[in-house]
């Protein structure tokens, strides 16, 4: 074993046991690594869950136009001919006023083709009451929070008022509100979707808005392994003028940008924990240089080169970085494994689990750990700890053997 490495190990374990300074330095790096791992995994979990919700409710690609799309205009032929598309279904959307028991609400409504939508969007998975088999041209499905706010249950009848009624009034025509039955209730897990969404058959939506056979767009499900960006670019070259294809990410670009910004900011702020740990490593190694001044001078007098003396302190910093990173990864993965139990305990100790779910909209804390994030955390923590030994190494290398031997 090279003597600089042997010397580094002897200083880290002076009596065969871990020294106090080494233990504190390793714990500092480990806590920083654990916090960075947990924070990035939780934020990644939210992003992964939101991505799944978006794809489950919109498909990987959406085809839209500035106005209305005529199904006979050739759009469906283009979609059917693309090899990357597994299924597609038309939709029409808008905003209506929903009334039940003199309580109004103004949800977004989406009309779907019931015969084709099951191949694109797994609505049945999110139903908490009722069934899609009960949905017909005189019934709707409400989101959970909307139904709760109106006090509606499956089987109740609600009134729908649409902008078409105002258009008819301009022509001195009276259009009565549409009475429809609530066939079911769904819960997706996204507050905005669960608070103000109505799903109905496409024919009902076309009647409510006077669209005839027109639609607003198509939800598209891709073949397994197909790239959404490639398929969208191919569709944009083949679709008629005025009609375009957007990936799920492009359709929600603003929200995804905010989520990515929050994630990056949290990661950036938590890196300062590693920086503080690196400063503690520097200070402890500087203390070692002061305490071992005479020994360092003796090594120089015996022929030890300055760079070998410096190497021993860099090795100490690197060892602390590796040990701290390993401990931090173990602690971080343990926290992620028991995260739901920890969240449940905090909820019980503060506001209660029911209130926690009501206000924060989740009972299980999502987590998704990307290999790229783990690699960045590992490399950053080890490099920071190794660099923390440079100042003590430079200080030790600058010592003159004669002056160091005179040190008291």
UniProtKB/TrEMBL annotation:
Its main location: membrane. It is a multi-pass membrane protein. It is found in: Cell membrane. It comes from Oleiharenicola lentus. Signal peptide: none annotated. This is ABC transporter permease. One of its GO terms (cellular component) is plasma membrane protein complex. Residues 22-237 form the MacB-like periplasmic core domain. The keyword Cell membrane applies. The chain crosses the membrane at residues 20-43, 266-290, 310-336, 374-394. Keywords: Cell membrane, Membrane, Transmembrane, Transmembrane helix. The keyword Cytoplasm does not apply. GO terms for biological process: lipoprotein localization to outer membrane. Belongs to the ABC-4 integral membrane protein family. LolC/E subfamily. Pfam families: FtsX, MacB_PCD. Residues 268-401 form the ABC3 transporter permease C-terminal domain. InterPro entries: ABC3_permease_C (IPR003838), Lipoprotein-release_system (IPR051447), MacB_PCD (IPR025857).
